[in-house]
Amino acid sequence: MLDLLPFALEDFFAEFEHRPDLLNLASSDASPWTMPEILVKCPDLRTDLEQLSLNYPDVQKSLVPALQKISQPPPHMDILAVSGAAEAIFPWNSPSHLQSHD
Length: 102
Prior knowledge:
Blueprint: H1 8-16, H2 35-41, H3 46-50, H4 59-71, H5 89-93
């Protein structure tokens, strides 16, 4: 069994995820408001919501090239982009899995 380091995101959710007195919109499975409720509270969002695409982007094709251009990592390093903070827990705690095997 791996001895994982503490991860702030998991600690946050452990403390706040199921508190009935809080509205947690940060959770990926949050569904506390319906779309009509959101539009009543924020009517200016209608146009943006109508154009919203509800999918995860391909971060390897869209984000990684932009990050490489901005950060210019050394040739022996690469960028690993993930769609959510929780996905980074395993590679962060297991750096041996990130080594190149060329």
